[in-house]
Specification:
The chain is an alpha/beta fold. It folds into 3 domains: about 130 residues, Nucleotidyltransferase, domain 5 (2-Layer Sandwich), CATH 3.30.420; about 140 residues; about 140 residues, no CATH class. The longest helix has about 35 residues. It is globular, with a radius of gyration of 29 Å. The N terminus and C terminus are likely disordered.
Length: about 450
């Protein structure tokens, strides 16, 4: 719902509506104020520091900005200290996509001229003409924004860790296949402490083949392993002493040094991801919505924090569940022209939330009987591909999450998937007592 922008009493025309546009840059910003007729009332060039922020706030106050009736602001970013200063009150701040702003610029001038003061004027006019078509930044709580910072940082660290791990694996394939064979049975592979420890001790296959069982046991103990050390050391020794092709000695040593440099980066990435995961586990449970989010099957602390980070806790952010589904990229989109029409998945979406939804649906298939039955029905009856069926499941569950958050309710399997739950109960009742399943009927 559009709020009434601020008004100024000192222009001689009575009370008029004021809009503000700010062209953001690294060191300086350009500010423009326009009225509801499009007339430029004021413009300023401010610095990106406390002095510049004070000039901006004084300028807004001069034209009628108050805490009860603040002037709305359009800016091409949603982050930074300037945005934090503007959001300190109940002010509506609109983060305009730079590509959208460029289209509006062409609307006012066909000469393709561009300037920073002109861009500030364009942003102010966007609010004047199309404020209803743009969404202001959500009024999330400080705790929700803190969770968002940590969850996104942990997600970035996880992606960075996987990227470096892939680079390391590609390098080992060139000269050290024994190392890949050694870590193959381990979950997380090269990211495990045992793998990083033995690569530091033996950066080349020649040096690895010389390791004894005693030395390998010492390596595993240093990595923190406590069980099955002797058996695992024997398996590693056999893998390292299997016949493999070798690079020339000088080339092998050079590749070993390159591998050690990548290993340092991998250890730093693993430490960063682990530390941020601990920080998320400490902060996320403090949020009031955490219990509701964690009640959903397939959502743990890390994944639940990522979902909260993207949807926030502003209950007015999405008008209905359809808006949230479109934002997450879960609902399909229809493209129609004349007699032609097609239904495809969304390409413009919140990529972080969409990625979290993919993992959420994948985990929910095994954690929830109703979710699994829904997925199987889409695969079998609708002939959906795996990704399409999984996306449809995510679409349904994020709608349920929206409802639960709005109503303050926990997830209920019987309500979420009534048909699937009833079918599961009926199937359980049809199993005769003492059957091969070893379970008694419900």
């Amino acid at each position: 719902m559009r709020s009434q922008p601020a008004q100024t009493p000192n222009t001689g025309r009575g009370k008029i509506v004021i809009y503000c546009g700010i062209d953001w840059a690294e060191k300086t910003h350009d500010v423009a104020l326009v009225d509801d007729s499009g007339q430029l009332l004021a413009k300023r060039h401010i610095t990106d520091d406390a002095t510049g922020y004070k000039i901006l706030l004084d300028l807004l106050a001069e034209y009628g900005d108050t805490e009860e009736d603040p002037i709305p602001v359009a800016i091409e970013t949603s982050r930074g200290l300037l945005v934090a200063v503007l959001r300190a009150s109940k002010r509506q701040v609109f983060a305009i996509n730079p590509m959208a702003a460029a289209r509006y610029r062409d609307r006012h001038s066909v000469s393709r001229k561009k300037s920073d003061p002109g861009d500030a004027l364009v942003l102010a006019n966007i609010l004047r003409t199309d404020m209803h078509a743009h969404r202001p930044l959500p009024q999330d709580s400080d705790l929700a924004r803190a969770v968002a910072v940590l969850a996104r940082a942990q997600q970035d660290a996880t992606w960075n860790r996987q990227q470096i791990s892939n680079q390391l694996r590609s390098l080992l394939r060139e000269y050290y296949p024994a190392a890949l064979a050694a870590v193959e049975p381990w979950k997380n592979g090269l990211c495990r402490p045992e793998a990083r420890e033995f690569l530091k001790v033996a950066p080349t296959p020649t040096r690895a083949a010389r390791l004894t069982c005693t030395q390998l046991q010492a390596v595993l103990k240093r990595a923190g392993r406590q069980r099955g050390i002797a058996a695992e050391a024997g398996r590693l020794r056999e893998a390292f002493r299997t016949d493999w092709a070798h690079q020339p000695p000088l080339v092998e040593d050079a590749l070993g040094k390159q591998m050690l440099a990548l290993l340092v980066q991998l250890e730093a990435a693993c430490a960063a991801a682990d530390n941020l995961a601990e920080a998320v586990e400490e902060v996320f449970p403090q949020h009031p919505d955490a219990e509701i989010i964690l009640s959903f099957p397939g959502l743990g602390t890390q994944l639940g924090a990522r979902v909260l980070a993207e949807i926030g806790d502003d209950r007015q952010r999405f008008a209905d569940a359809r808006g949230l589904k479109a934002y997450a990229g879960a609902s399909p989109i229809t493209r129609a022209s004349g007699k032609k029409s097609s239904i495809t998945r969304r390409w413009v979406k919140n990529d972080r939330l969409n990625h979290a939804g993919y993992l959420w649906a994948f985990s929910a298939i095994t954690a929830s009987p109703g979710a699994k039955a829904h997925y199987r029905r889409r695969r079998d009856n609708r002939a959906d591909w795996h990704a399409a069926a999984q996306r449809n499941l995510f679409n349904r569950m994020i709608g349920q999450l929206y409802h639960c958050l709005q109503q303050g309710q926990h997830y209920d399997e019987a309500v979420a998937f009534p048909a699937e739950t009833e079918a599961s109960l009926q199937a359980a009742q049809d199993v005769p007592r003492g059957s091969h399943t070893g379970r008694l009927p419900s």
